[in-house]
């Protein structure tokens, strides 16, 4: 899992926080995510869910009805 540049700016959105926590927990236990150059479809999906939640939180659309939930934990 390759992470984009992550700023220290915090979002005040619990959905974005949960999406980040889910992505980190997955990456910590996933051999593919921890191997440089390897790809993990699940990890990439979780990272995209976090990025989308953060964008929505910053734009004020955090609790929009079209927000997607992060993938279930494995």
Map the helices and strands:
Elements (H helix, E strand, L loop, with lengths): L13 H16 L1 H4 L6 H19 L15
Helix pairs in contact: 1-3
Any overview of this molecule?
This protein is mainly α. It is built from three helices and no strands. It has helices at residues 14-29, 31-34, 41-59. It is elongated and about 35 Å long. The two termini are 16 Å apart.
Put the structure in a nutshell.
The chain is mainly α and 74 residues long. It is built from three helices and no strands. This is 4Fe-4S Wbl-type domain-containing protein.
What's the total number of strands?
0
Work out the radius of gyration: 12 Å
Structural class by sheet pairing and helices: mainly alpha
Beta-strand content: under 5%
The main pleated sheet reads as: none
Distance between the termini: 16 Å
Helix content: 40-55%
Number of helices: 3
List the secondary-structure elements in sequence, H or E.
HHH
* Unreliable parts: none
Mean pLDDT: 78
Judging from the principal axes of the Cα atoms, what is the shape?
Answer: elongated
Protein name: 4Fe-4S Wbl-type domain-containing protein
Region (Disordered): 54-74
């Amino acid at each position: 899992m390759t992470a984009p540049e992550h700023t220290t700016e915090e979002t005040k959105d619990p959905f974005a926080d949960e999406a980040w926590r889910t992505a980190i927990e997955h990456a910590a236990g996933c051999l593919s995510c921890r191997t440089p150059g390897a790809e993990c479809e699940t990890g990439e999906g979780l990272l995209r869910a976090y990025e989308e939640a953060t964008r929505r939180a910053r734009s004020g659309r955090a609790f929009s009805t079209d927000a997607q939930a992060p993938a279930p934990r494995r």
